[in-house]
C-alpha cells in the first residue's frame, strides 16, 4: 500500500516534471482501477484487493491450492457482476464498504494491511455471524460476505481442480447401479 | 422467363410437405421418405445437425462461463423461458427467447418453444407411456369435449411400430390402464423406490409404482445402430443433445434417417405463414413460407400437407390460412378451431425423508429419473368429486450434503467430506385438465410477429376441477407417504401458469362429427382431406400420460393411411 502510494506519487511528480499530466494513465488516478474487467460493479483497486484477500482467506493456499491460484477470486467477481440483480450488486458494494470499516475497527488497520492470521481471525467472526440466524446486522456486511463466500464455495466445488483432484466428476458415467452398497462408496 | 417460372414451380413442388421437424414432423418425414415420396420438411428455426451442432455436449461444469448459471440480464430479459427447468447455461441456445416470437397472454401462459431442427425433441424429458381405452373413452364416459374417433386397438400397432424404432426402456408391468409396449430393459428402481413400490402394492388394490418408461437405449437393437445411435451412457445431460444418440430425438433419429433416403429436402429458416387452399380444386395445394432471414415469401406445393408445427403453432397456421371457402381458418366449419385447448397440471410437489435402507445408495445416474405412478383415480368408475385423475413421478435419492461451514482448512475439509445423508423422496403430479370452449387461442387483430404473421392470443386457465384434483393428489400422496413411514413430509403447491408443463394440447381436435370437431379419425381435416394434423393440436382430451409417444404413433398411422388411400387412387 505504502509502496503503491510512493510509486503513484513518484509517477505524478515525474508527469508534472514532463508537463504532461493530461496523459496520465487512468489507472494512476487516486484509488486506482481494478485489474478485473467488470461490466456493472464499480470498484477501485483497493476494493478489488480486499475481495481477492477475502476469497484467499476463505479458501487459503495450504498444501492444496487456494482461491488466487485457482482463479476463484475472478470467478466471484464474474458471478456477482453477471448473475446478480442490481439490488444485490448494490448490497455488495455497500457491504464491501461495511466490511472494510468493520475490519479496520477490529484490526486497527485496513483488512488489506492485516496479516493472513489477522484477516483469518476477523473473517472467522464474520463467518460465525453469517451462519447465525439470530445475528442482526444493521449494515450490509453479512450480505456482502455471504455473496463472496457462496460464490467462492460454488466456484471452488465446480472448479477443474476440485472436480478432478478432490472428487471425481464423471461426464460419462456409463452405468446406473440402482442398488449400490454404501460400504463401497468410500472407494469412489 | 416463362420457362424459368415453370422450372421454378417444378422445383418448389413435392409429393408431400411436412411443417415442422420435431417430435412428430420427424416421423412424418421418415415415413414419407421410406416410401419414396419426395418430401419437403419446413423448419422455422435454424438447422441443428446431430453431433455437429451440440456445442455444449462435452463441456465440464467449469468450462461454462458461469458454471451453468444463467446471467441475470438474460433471466430478466426472458421471464417466461427462464421458468423452464431445462433453461440453463448448457441448453439456453435451444430455447426461443421471449422477445424472438411475441404473443399475447390474455391469461398468463408460459409458452416454451424450441425453434430448430428437432424442435423440442432435443429438450424433452423423454418419458413415454401409452394411452389405454381408459383414456380414449374418457370424454364419452365423463361427458366432456367430444368422443375420440379412435380407440386403443386403432393405435396399439402404431405404438409398437414407433417404439421399436425410437427405443423405449421399460418393464412389462401388466397394468391394464398403462399398456405394455415393445421395451428395451428398464432402468431399475433403487432400494427406496422398490420399497415404496412394494408398500403401495400391498396397501392399495390398483396403485402401482413402476420404473419410469423412457426413450433411452438401455440396450440398443440393430435398428438403433442402423440409425447411428448407441447405448445410453447415463450422462443425464440430454438437453445438450446426446453425442451417443442415447435418447430419441428427431435430430439423432428420424430426420437424418429421412435425409439419408435421398428423398427429403429439409429447409430451415422457413416460417409457414399459411396453407394455400384452392377453392376450385377444393383442396390444399401448398404452403406459403416466409424466409426467416430474408422475409421473402415463397410458395411450395404438394399433394399432401402434414401440420406438425407443435400444438399452438399448428393452430396458428390453420387460423391464418383463410380463403373464400374457409374465412375463419382452414377446415374450420365447426367453429372449434383454436378452442378446447388444455394442458397438464404440474403444480404440486411433495417431498419427504426416509430413515431406512441405509445400507444402500446408487451409483451412476438414472436417465429414467426413477419411478412412475400411473393414474389410479376414477379409472374404472367415477369415485371422486372431480373428473379424471393424475399420474405422478416418484423418485428417491441420497443426494448427500456438503457442509460449507467454516473457513480455511476447516472449510476445505468440509467440502470434500460428502456426507451421504439419509434418503429423500419426491413426487410431482401430472394432472389431466378438461378441454373447454373458453380455453382458446386466436389471432390478434392488429399485432404482428417479426415475420408479419398475426400474433397468437392465448387464453387458457385452471378451473375448479383442477383445484379439487390437486387437493386430492396432495391428500393421497401424503397418505401414501405417511403409511410408508416417510417423515418430514413437505407439500408444495405453486401457481405456475399453464404452458410450463410444455404439454399444451388441442385446438384442432379429432372427433366423429364434422360439426363439433376439426379432424377425422385419420387426422385429416374433415373439410380438407389432404391436410393432416398429427401433433398435440389434434388431441381431443389430454389424459395424464406424457404425450410425445402418442404423437409419434398418430403420425406414423396417418402417413400409412395417406399412402394406402393414394394406392387406391
CATH first level of the largest domain in chain B: Alpha Beta
| Span between termini of chain A | 47 Å
Can you name the CATH architecture of the largest domain in chain B?
A: 3-Layer(bba) Sandwich
The number of domains of chain B is 2
Write the element-wise H/E pattern of chain A from the N-terminal end onward.
HHHHHHHHEH
Count of separate structural domains of chain A: 2
Low-confidence stretches of chain B: none
Question: What class do helices, strands and sheet pairing of chain A give?
Answer: mainly alpha
DSSP helical segment count of chain B: 13
Q: How many strands, which pairing sense, and closed or not: the largest β-sheet of chain A? A: none
Keywords (chain B): FAD, Flavoprotein, Oxidoreductase
GO molecular function, one term (chain B): oxidoreductase activity, acting on CH-OH group of donors
Domain Glucose-methanol-choline oxidoreductase N-terminal (chain B): 199-321
Pfam families (chain B): GMC_oxred_C (PF05199), GMC_oxred_N (PF00732)
Walkthrough of the structure:
The complex is a heterodimer of chains A (188) and B (569). With 188 residues, chain A is mainly alpha-helical. Chain A folds into two domains: 1-30; 31-185, no CATH class. Chain A has nine helices and one strand; from the N terminus they run H-H-H-H-H-H-H-H-E-H. Chain A has helices spanning 2-18, 45-58, 67-70, 72-83, 86-107, 116-131, 141-157, 160-166, 182-185; one strand at 176-181. The termini of chain A are far apart. The model of chain B has no long low-confidence stretch (mean pLDDT 97). Strand 1 (176-181) of chain A pairs antiparallel with strand 14 (360-364) of chain B. Chain A: It comes from Mucilaginibacter phyllosphaerae. Chain A: InterPro entries: Gluconate_2DH_su3. Chain A: Pfam families: Gluconate_2-dh3. Chain A: This is Gluconate 2-dehydrogenase subunit 3 family protein.
